[in-house]
Amino acid sequence: MSDPDGWRGSPHGVGWLTAPPFHRAVGWFGHDRTVRPDPGSLDPRQRCRRADIDSSFGWDAVLRPPRAVVRRDAGLWACEAALRRRGFDPIAGADEAGRGACAGPLVVAACVLRDGRRGIVPGLADSKALAPAVREEVYAEVVRRALAWSVVIVPAPEVDARGLHFSNIEGMRRAFAALDPRPSYALTDGFPVAGIGLPGLAVPKGDAVIACIAGASVIAKVTRDRIMVELHETWPQYDFATHKGYVTPGHAAALAEHGPCSEHRFSYINVRRVSGRGGGSETELGFPEVLDPAELLGSPDGAGELVAAVRDDVRMEGVTA
User: Fold this and answer.
1) What percentage of the chain has pLDDT greater than the value 70?
2) pTM for this model (two decimals)
3) Does 69 fall in a domain?
4) Which of 36, 42, 290, 302 is the residue whose CA sits 20 to 30 A from 132?
């Protein structure tokens, strides 16, 4: 039955309001299970907003907590504040950098920002929206103010062997597992992540609307950019320091002239075609989605942070601030 106020999806918890009259319920943050109402016991409004009955447990009238509406224009910290009002703290966000690149590692980061003014990071935003110099400054503030943060590096050969999406999800699991203290709620950018032992929520464009995801986005992006600058010293013919392994005309020309190196992802169709290993359809080879031009932003040189290389036979060590 549709909600009289226009809500759809989960019957409980915090909702995400984009702009009237379009609504999206983004999660159920109050209980461990969804309880279905008895259609014969409540009037229509009560069925949607006030009471549930779980016949299997014999509850007679369990009142729902009031639903919080979080507007997308309410600021980066609004969603985390709504979760904390419901008893979830600390709250972690995770994001990755390098999904669209055809060379270099996939880097996944998780971040827990402190509650209150200590966790407010000046200039924090989606890493792709920040200029390289600004991104470095925000990175320094994020790691200084974060309660905990972690980084997972998935090398190019592992992305080829295990697949891009699987590597991304597994990297997020490992990044969350490395956080100390352990978070009570997990927020991710775009993709739901099962198997982390935490309640969680996937938020489309989360790095632009939720602070802890934006913090993870900045950590992942800066860490990966620094790695690509270091790889440039070994493979200067590809100019990794400029394009960071993404598909650009200059990178394509270098691939055509020199062929791929060990840091390229051979499961990607453009790399495979110049490697002499044969072609294949983009669907078969897992070619990534269309690139966001903002992902091509570079970053200044910088010393690399301590990170964790993830392989099947290596235990991941957490990195906390």
Assistant:
1) 63
2) 0.69
3) yes
4) 290
